[in-house]
Amino acid sequence: MAQDAAAPRGAPASDIDPFTREHILDPYAWHHRLREMGALVWLTKYQCFFAPRYAEVHRIISEYQTFSSAAGVGYTNFNKEKPWRQPSMLLEADPPDHTKRRAVVGRILSAPNLRGFRAGFEVEANKLIDHLLEVGEVDAVPDVAQAFVLKVFPDAVGIADGDRTNLIKYGTMVFNAFGPQNEIFDDSVRDLGEVGPWIMERCQHKNLKPGRLGDQVYQAVAGGQITAEEAPILVRSFLSAGVDTTIYGAGNALWSLATNPAEWAKVKANPALAKPAFEEVLRYESPFQTFFRTTIEDVELAGITIPGNEKVMVNMGSANRDPRKWDRADVFDISRDVRGHVGLGYGIHACIGQMISRLEVDVLLSELARRKIDFEVSGPTQHIVHNTLRGFAKLPMRFKQGS
Ligand code: OVV
């Protein structure tokens, strides 16, 4: 353990770097170490606090009045440094700016408003499953999770067909940019000059299919609930936040279920269990592992005073495996009471797209279950090296008709 003169009084300090390749690929051992060190650990390398335990993570994301999002939810403090793109009007905003936009987009992404998409998602899932049974062996991230999400989600937003892999390039930039400006960050923003304008063009009203989710944002402009300037940036949030997260979430779900066949047997026996199974995936292999908040003023947390205008790193992945909160935290168990997991955040910034993301993964898993498909990992896997997200870069899998 390193000592650090700059560490606020009473805080344990660690020289661990959460953003090295090694720590990204294998996070759970060092999460455990930091949870045992304290409720807040000072990271000497980044000169900021790290919250590894459930209770403090929950408190920080609940108290938006103190732990602000408007200075960015990445390591970059927008009060001190220029953001790499125009900030999100939802994610990187506080009340009152945040409030009306959240209400408008929240209605658009609410379960009742999404109900009409289910049947179409099922058609796509079944086409994909037919294909999987034909070819047998695939890489489940590009060939299953990505193939499905890149079809159904942009269709729901109302994006034209075309080279949708730009959406993944953009998501990769957005989520890596929440980390420090390391090599991973630099590598992923390299194509910004090309992909940024492509994304903004997709967010224009004229390029969004009438009636779909993107168009509904513009209808709120016509209704006077949001301004014309807000609309394209709100549509941009769909494209920023909705693609990579759900792809890696679906990949993590397939891996978790393939490596816990007794749990998949339960889902096959009762496809309605696809829903709780995905919630357990969000806890056990949280696709969105970390973000930051910025203190508005001095605040006391776990007996330590955090000064104002300081970044605090919040680790949902670690909170979701904190044994102070969860029994057998490292066990994947779809029957557990998973309520309270912070895989989708909590409070006023809780994932606004959670209903459509859940719908996508539920359709995929419950159709696999209904058709009694079995799947197994069929070769060496590899995780993504990513500043924020946890998922697979390589996930070889074999799919076959089971019973
Ligand atoms: C939750 C999230 C992640 C990335 C981007 C955004 C939101 C956004 O609103 O742009």
Describe what you observe in this structure.
The chain has 403 residues and is α+β, with helices and mostly antiparallel strands. It has a single domain (13-401), classed as Cytochrome p450 (Orthogonal Bundle). It is built from 17 helices and 13 strands. The protein has helices at 21-25, 27-37, 54-62, 97-108, 111-114, 118-135, 140-157, 165-176, 183-189, 192-202, 213-222, 230-241, 244-258, 261-269, 274-284, 316-319, 354-370; strands spanning 13-14, 41-43, 48-51, 67-68, 137-139, 290-295, 299-301, 304-306, 311-315, 373-377, 382-383, 392-394, 396-401. The strands form four sheets. A six-stranded mixed beta sheet has the order 1-2-3-9-6-4, sandwiched between helices. The protein has a three-stranded antiparallel beta sheet with strand order 5-13-10. Strand 2 (41-43) and strand 3 form a beta hairpin. It starts with 12 loop residues before the first strand and ends with a strand. The model has no long low-confidence stretch (mean pLDDT 97). Bound molecules: 3-methylbenzoic acid. The site of 3-methylbenzoic acid (OVV) has 8 residues, from helix 12.
CATH architecture: Orthogonal Bundle
Biggest sheet, spatial arrangement of strands: 1-2-3-9-6-4
CATH class group: Mainly Alpha
How many domains in all? 1
Biggest sheet details: 6 strands, mixed
Q: What is the molecular shape?
A: globular
Bound molecules: 3-methylbenzoic acid
> What sequence of helices (H) and strands (E) makes up the elements?
EHHEEHEHHHEHHHHHHHHHEEEEHHEEEE
Class computed from helices, strands and strand pairing? alpha+beta
Structural Rg: 21 Å
Strand content is: 5-15%
N- to C-terminal separation?
53 Å
CATH topology: the name is Cytochrome p450
Q: Could you name the CATH homologous superfamily? A: Cytochrome P450
The proportion of residues forming helix, as a percent range, comes to: 40-55%
- Poorly predicted runs: none
Number of strand elements: 13
Classify the oligomer.
Answer: single chain
- Average pLDDT for all residues: 97
Number of helices: 17
